[in-house]
Amino acid sequence: MLTTSVLCLLAYLVGSIPSGYLLVWATRRVDVRDHGSHNVGTINVFRVGGLWLGLVTLLADIGKALGIVLLAAAVTPSVWTVASAAFLVMVGHAYSAWFLLQERRFSEGKSVACALGVLLGLVILGALPWWVAVAPVGVWVAGLLGPRLLAGRWWPISPATMAATVAIPIAVWAARPAPAYLALAVAMAALILVRHKNNIRRLLAGTEPCAGQSLPPEPSELCGLTVL
Question: CB of 42 within 8 A of CB of 23?
């Protein structure tokens, strides 16, 4: 049986695998971090590598978190250990050992897809009801499509993502899970929001790209709206 320390280390190392970076480099010989939001996650891979690479990155990042949650539950009865492993796979994505060893620095990763993988894993285990995983996705879709449907224009993706992130601990709290999983949900949301600090700066500066846009044309414009 895996010890808690080995399991947690494995979770961090699996999370550290930069799926998007590796896929774009293998197929295009391009460093995805040199373009768009300079992120290694799904959205930036969509921008740089196209639809299929973005979808594969999404599935890979969801899968590594889902796999760790299921593995942890299979080898330990401790919900706190499962929660710790789940959080560490997200930390690994956000602060990848791969880039630290290669370049002596971390790279941008927000762990949003990993968070979805964690929630799906807990749903499969019966620790959370299915709607807890669906609720943040619904908030994200509403935040992304709402401006388009109501105002006829696309807005940045990051506000929708941050709203969905805040919805995670709220939905988990409403499900009344084990305390370990509520603590996990709060930690997950905090990590994702901290990793959005550069997006928040770009939103305030009016330089955050919109959905489907690599970079806005002018620093003073945000999706066609002048930032005062």
Answer: no
- The answer to whether the beta carbons of residues 154 and 213 sit under 8 Å apart is yes
Looking at the 3D structure of the chain, how many domains does it have? Answer: 1
pLDDT digits 0-9 by tens, 37-74 = 678 888 888 888 888 999 999 999 999 999 999 999 99
pTM for the model stands at: 0.88
- 199, 37 contact by CB (below 8 A): yes
Model confidence pLDDT, tens digit, residues 89-144:
999 999 998 887 877 777 778 999 999 999 999 999 999 999 999 999 999 999 99
Q: Where are the alpha helices (DSSP H) in 76-157?
A: 79-94, 97-103, 112-124, 130-151
Structural domain containing residue 129 = 4-226
Which tokens sit at 146? 């709402």
State the Cα–Cα distance between residues 60 and 45, nearest whole angstrom.
12
Inter-residue contact 227 to 220 (CB < 8 Å):
yes
Q: Is 16 exposed, middle or buried (0-12, 13-18, 19+ CB in 10 A)?
A: buried
